[in-house]
Design goal:
Layout: H1 12-17, E1 22-24, H2 27-43, H3 61-73, E2 77-81, H4 90-104, E3 106-108, E4 118-120, E5 140-143, E6 149-156, E7 160-161, E8 164-168, H5 169-179, H6 181-189, E9 214-217, E10 220-223, H7 227-232, H8 242-255, E11 261-264, E12 270-275, E13 279-283, E14 286-287, E15 295-302, H9 314-317
Helix pairs in contact: 2-4, 5-6, 6-8
Length: 326
């Protein structure tokens, strides 16, 4: 339980003063991305299959490298602003989002249906053990997504709410190690997760083993957390002990503190890239109206260059042949 050090350890005050995680596109790069998006959408029969090979952006090679390094070696997330969505059709916006994401990481499917990109918007679908939270407008507690990395690209904002909130998993780990080491031991032992129907018929509805909230691979932190499927495991006969519930409450209590949180109010043309192994994120409930509808695009990625390739929740939600973490 040695104290974690370095850039991934931050609090709200520190990260709010920093600009190292924010990248503004220049006019030339933005124009090249728009041209690449139009070309990819035209050339690719199905836009949802666009990858780096159909999205040529040589002017942005340095930018993509710096974004990758920030999410791998730096604070664990980055925001790219100035994406030229205003001049693009929806299919071209999909092509740009997928192409850029595939230059930063490598796009992977994110559900049993093998979708490479999903619309994050209110579809009026209840968030439960039978569905995924991105299809509702409800508050999403702090969690990590299934893959190593994800991008979240804003096309539109709602009338109220809908903030994305980021927290340093490393800083949270340090707090719990210092203040409640018994809770940390339970979190490191882990919990069974409900798979929410994202599996083959006949496969178990729960993870085969406990999934640690905090683990280490090559001496580096790997965070993997989502309380809802942990609690939904009770629908399959798993009972959480009082000590386990208390440990989860300890974690969520620290995540709820303002000093832990960076609130990102993503605007159209902004894309957040996030490393799930060293950050956790949340979303506030939101309200749409006739003129303002929250709409984002989500892409999951792996990182073949990473030092942190280990188990992630992707292996619970996609067919086994597509769950390669390497």
């Amino acid at each position: 339980m040695a104290e974690l050090q370095g850039s991934p350890v931050w609090n709200s005050a520190e990260i709010s003063r920093s600009t190292k995680w924010r990248f503004e596109l220049g006019p030339a790069i933005a124009a090249q991305m728009a041209d690449a998006a139009r070309a990819a959408a035209t050339a690719c029969p199905e836009t949802v299959n666009v990858d780096r090979t159909q999205f040529s952006i040589p002017l942005a090679a340095g930018l993509c490298g710096r974004v990758h390094d920030e999410i791998e070696y730096g604070v664990g997330f980055a925001v790219v602003a100035g994406l030229p969505f205003g001049a693009l059709t929806y299919d071209e916006q999909l092509a740009l989002t997928l192409g850029l994401s595939d230059h930063v990481g490598r796009v992977v499917p994110q559900n049993y249906e093998l979708q490479r990109i999903v619309d994050v918007r209110d579809e009026g679908i209840e968030y439960s053990h039978r569905s995924r939270g991105y299809r509702s407008n409800k508050h999403l507690p702090f969690h990590t997504d299934g893959a190593h990395l994800f991008s979240l690209t804003c096309l539109g904002v709602g009338a109220e709410g809908g903030e994305t909130i980021i927290a340093s998993a490393s800083a949270v780990y340090n707090r719990i190690a210092k203040e409640n080491p018994d809770a940390l031991k339970i979190l490191c032992r882990g919990f069974y997760h409900h798979r929410r129907g994202q599996h083959d018929p006949g496969e178990p509805p729960l993870s085969a083993e406990r999934v640690p909230v905090f683990a280490f691979h090559n001496g580096l932190l790997h965070c993997c957390y989502n309380r809802n499927p942990i609690e939904w495991a009770e629908k399959e006969g798993v009972t959480l002990s009082e000590e386990e519930i208390a440990a989860l409450d300890t974690l969520d209590g620290i995540l709820a503190e303002d000093d832990t949180q960076l609130k990102l109010n993503l605007q159209p043309g902004e894309c957040a890239f996030v490393n799930n192994y060293i950050t956790m994120h949340s979303r506030t409930e939101y309200i749409d109206d006739a003129d303002n509808r929250r709409h984002l695009l989500r892409v999951w990625m792996r990182d073949p260059k990473s030092r942190r390739n280990a188990f992630n929740l992707l292996q619970l939600y996609v067919p086994a042949a597509h769950a390669n973490v390497a």
